[in-house]
Amino acid sequence: MILPYPIITAPTLFLDEKKALNNLKKMSEKAKKSHTRLVPHFKTHQSRHIGEWYKEYGVTEITVSSIYAAEYFLPQLWENIHIAFPFNPLEITKLNRLAAEQSISVQLVNAATAGLLADNLLQQVGYFIEIDAGYGRTGVEVSDFGTIEAILRTSLKTNKLKFRGFYIHAGHTYHSSPEEIQAIYHQTTSALTMLKDKYNSEFPDLVIRLGDTPSCSIQQDFAGIDEVGPGNFIFYDLTQAALGSCTKEDIAVALAAPIVDIKKHKNEILVHGGGVHLSKDVLILPNGQKSYGEVVFIHEDGWEILEEPAIVKSISQEHGVLQAPKAIIDRVHLGELIGILPVHSCMTADCMGGYMNLKGEKVDHFKGQNSFYRNL
Hints:
Helices cover 31% and strands 26% of the residues. By secondary structure, the chain is of the alpha/beta class. Helix 5 (111-120) runs parallel beside helix 6. It is elongated.
């Protein structure tokens, strides 16, 4: 659709701030009702502008996925920034510099890294032990008390490492039904509660934190959990809608892609919007077809979700091929923009490195500032 923004000539990621703020409000209220602290993950939006919204809901500590992102958010004066990724020992020097300016916590999964930090830290740094309770990607297995206690013993050799608690990201919820997500949530909370009970007498201030958006969205309360750290909920996406975490109406970002060709005889639309814009994350539809995004019509006040869906059926580096019914084909023209809801909003935002809100104003993104590349 033609929009009142003549500056848009290339793929642009639109942000519906009203939807994002509503998503934030709902998650914040749920956490508050459960007396659970919200420590959101900023890996989805990666924006200082959006980060300021969280402060209005009492958020004082945030989570990021890299030391470079932590540096980017440092000017906002957070109470603490947690880096939720197994700590990379090659970054100890950079961690020391950052910890001199900002309270930082890291994630540990083995005693060797704990030992390197104990020997080389110049500033006090907090740490969480990441626990694997079924996902299988990273973390200490929940029953591996030998590794857990080796990390704890190693950290106690110095006053530079402060144990914060246990962290679980149950990423397998992203491949589960709502009923399975509920079961995983209970499995996760049981594992965290068991660990807290076991180590609470020695570490009375330890907290337990979980962080996946499907669990935090579907679960109605977080009773017994000290902290939750979801990230994707601020935007949501087609994957979350398919899981039942949200509706398509909750999705707060859409890629505006220029239409460069229309093949009416094939019911196809070719757009400038490929893997470098959307990423190549794919959603398998109930009929077995692959979808790399779903078509919407973008207007001044948001976007229109279509009654008869049209999808991005194939994708390459710069190209996207949309499969659309005749009713949609008849509505579009060369040189217009068409919207695409992302399969994975975190990756799409990371690819695009910036946003435009519905007022036509640019919104910042960490990658768009090039700070990551300057510091390599």
